[in-house]
Sequence to fold (474 residues):
Amino acid sequence: MTSHNSFRASVERMFGNAAALMELAPGLEEKIRVCNSTYTVRFGVRLRGQIHTFTGYRSVHSEHMEPVKGGIRYSMDVNQDEVEALAALMTYKCALVEVPFGGSKGGLRIDPRAWNEDELERITRRFTYELSRRNLISPSQNVPAPDMGTGEREMAWMADAYKRLHPDDINAKACVTGKPRHAGGIDGRVEATGRGVQYALREFFRHPDVVGQAGLAGTLAGKRVIVQGLGNVGYHAAQFLSAEDGALVTCVIERDGVITNPQGINIDALRGHIHATGGVKGFAGGDHAENGLTALEGECDILIPAALESVIHAGNAERIKCKLIIEAANGPVTADADEILRRRGIVIIPDMYANAGGVTVSYFEWVKNLSQISLGRLERRHEEARARMLIEELERISADTGTNFELARGFKDAFLHGADELDLVRSGLDDTMRESFKKMKEVWINNPKVEDLRTAAYLVAIRRISNVYNSLGL
Ligand code: NAD
Fold:
């Protein structure tokens, strides 16, 4: 599917809007825009007494930096247009948040719920073999990660399959990110994309001028939030925003319907219910309705689409009632809808920034794998010893001078805690989200031709990519 309205066409139109505001070297706009290659593989796996043929893709959008990076999606909707659009977004995302990778994406046309764990493992290992034969999985060239329908489990299978094929590669673990910790993963990767959404919103609310542009005021506390998709990204974003920032998640939209509760939904309880029953139906902590599509149009301050692409389109954009959309999913707003929402004054925090937490922490994981040591292992106790020295010295002075001051218990414990891996990962992620937002905002506010954060994000990303191309011998 590469029609005028396709996902890829939508991404290319948004890219084109930004590129039109720049003076790029002749031909460079096209070179940056096009997808370098897409590999399609059809492979057979013998399961349940017969051979089943699966179709998989790995698209490489840009190799201006290597390795290229991007998730692998398991879904029956996977197609070439989709992986190419997602690979392009990865290129721009990595450039925007200064993660030194090119853009890639992969997918397997499969309904993961239709197969049991052993079957999924065999299918995943076979897919890895096909990718490896073409260097489409490799620590130095192409590093997949989880996406819709995949998670730590699939990444561990892929890492193991790769290691078996390349037993002499000391960096083999770095062939894929999003692995469980025991298989070389990093603390904080599972939560990373949702955590990044939270950090993005916190940063947004630190800038009263942009908060005002959205017709909002104050902080995140008490803001009414609608979330579509309570999977990895949606769950973590909803959980952190409600438990740590006081936001009220008033509506959750899932495959099998909608849960609403104006007092705020208990996200952990709802997630538990979904795990236990397979859906939101029957959840006691809110009202259930079947139709999820119109729920996107509900009254709220912040809308978080965290499931699929193209859910806000020309057909419903006029009816969307939120003030701010943060695109936790990739491509949830089509180019047509983007124009309608902009005209209506609804502010959009764009996907390439909003969900960049995943690739940012994947980058930390890759660095950890290459350096073969966990973050903070060398410094942590040293840091704690220095903190202890300072406290003991203060206590000695206090005793010697008879001032008898006492540090608050909470302060002392926090001060004596050397940063562990999770602390460092969150700190690096927070820094990335804050700095990237400031860059986008600077471009948005200072250039009257830049009408929104998305165009600003593209401008920052394209500028950086073009700088790399200018130093490449093409
Ligand atoms: P996931 O598979 O963990 O979760 C997706 C959720 O959406 C599931 O709970 C599913 O039931 C729900 N869903 C599916 N169809 C739906 C529908 N029609 N209506 C409502 N809900 C529906 O996937 P994920 O990893 O959370 O990814 C979600 C989005 O975030 C995707 O667009 C993905 O590309 C993007 N993303 C993910 C990551 C990551 O680290 N996992 C990183 C960046 C971007």
About this structure: Residues 172 and 405 are 54 Å apart (CA to CA). The radius of gyration is 23 Å. The chain has a mean pLDDT of 96. Residues 421-446 form the longest helix (26 residues).
